[in-house]
Amino acid sequence: MPEMMENRTFDEIRVGDSATLTRTCTMDDVELFGVAIGGLNPTHYSPESAELFTRSGKIKAHSMWGCSLLSALFGNELPGPGTSYRSQDITFTAPIDIGDTVTVTVTVIETLPPHDVVFDCLATKQTGETVYTGRARVAAPTVKSVQPRIQLQEASLHRRHHVFEDIITSCSGLTPVTVAVCHPCDQVSLEGPVEAARLGLIAPILVGPEAKIRQVAAEFSIDIAGLRIVDCAHSHESAEKAVALCRSGEAEALMKGSLHTDEMMHEVASREKGLRTSRRISHVFIMDVPSYPRTLMISDAAINIYPTLEDKVDIVQNAISLAHVLGVDLPKVAILSAVETVYPKITSTIEAAALCKMADRGQITGGLLDGPLAFDNAINVEAAKIKKIVSPVAGRADILIVPDLEAGNMLAKQLSYLADAEAAGIVLGARVPIVLTSRADSAKARLASCAVAVRFAHARRAKNKSIAAE
């Protein structure tokens, strides 16, 4: 039986009647209140602003958040449903910090026919300190009401586009990584590495026609003073020389400029002069999806068109390695298909099952695999429950392994254009991490791609030192 709400009509209310409400203030409360009223005062959201502008240096709740608890108390309890505000006079004496438990008490001090009631109002913290005092006048209901307590929709906050910010911030304190920037001969491809250098993420080597690079820099006021330029005659030579810098160890990462991806990757994949290793090269999109509570990775959506089962082993392992670098110790890997059951006529379901068994046997390590999973039950817990899928991966995936490039590319673009997501791309499995960018990438996505390469290069440095020490 549902919980009931019963009001107190004007005729039932007596002087001295009182009601109490207790609520602990959380950061979500403050941010939801700010969203509701459009309040942008940074002292309510930013630790730096709070430290600068408040006495205690702590983030405070909006004063009116504490005052709004009166509205809840009047509307829910006394007088209850049917109440409307007349006036309010409040004096604030102490701020509400995040984590404070506030108790609000209202006491009837006067009834004014035909239906107004005057209340004394008091709010205190868990310490006993008074937050505010005052008086409120409301119009009490004249009609008796007993009804089920209303169930409001759950409201939650999603930090918009925080993933890339967190990745970039995680590089603070790391030494810049030398990056060979291949053919940065337009505004977008030159601005990205220059900005990354300004932030101390990378030390770029600009590999391309020097005259063209300087022309672009002058045209768009891009400061390249002090940056090394390796002069090349054309884009093909740019790819050759950029890859050679990485192969020799002079650069620890490679970044695509304004040349076509295929032209650069042809040099990367060369058996004699390229950057191949024993592992298959694959691409990973790091997705910043505002509606998803964790970083989401998609592979492969740019390199392997129709990967075989053997290819997918490396694709999965590359993505797991990246997740480790980004701080996910045991990433949850969902092997996607159109359905979540093994169906012989759908090859991707059979390969998904095989990959999971290979993980069980130690042929793939470092992550939790499950599949086949459809997209909905890979990223949504409720969808997994409806399908009765019991799995630590279902609904909580960190990595999505797609059946082929077409599916991955469409999925990434759907998230970008329909879910307001942003994508940063990186290629793994080569001797160095490779930053792949496109004209559609935002400036932050480009910086995040550089930051991922920096994290990966530093992880490789640490691994090499460990091997050398052994």
Automatic annotation (TrEMBL):
SUPFAM superfamilies found in the cross-reference section: Isocitrate/Isopropylmalate dehydrogenase-like (SSF53659), Thioesterase/thiol ester dehydrase-isomerase (SSF54637)
Boundaries of every MaoC-like domain copy: 21-108
Entry annotated with the keyword Cell inner membrane: no
One Pfam family here: MaoC_dehydratas
Source organism of the structure: Magnetospirillum fulvum MGU-K5
The protein's name in its UniProt record: Bifunctional enoyl-CoA hydratase/phosphate acetyltransferase
Keywords: Acyltransferase, Transferase
PANTHER family: PHOSPHATE ACETYLTRANSFERASE
Phosphate acetyl/butaryl transferase domain segment(s): 240-453
The keyword Disulfide bond appears for this protein: no
Gene Ontology terms for molecular function: acyltransferase activity
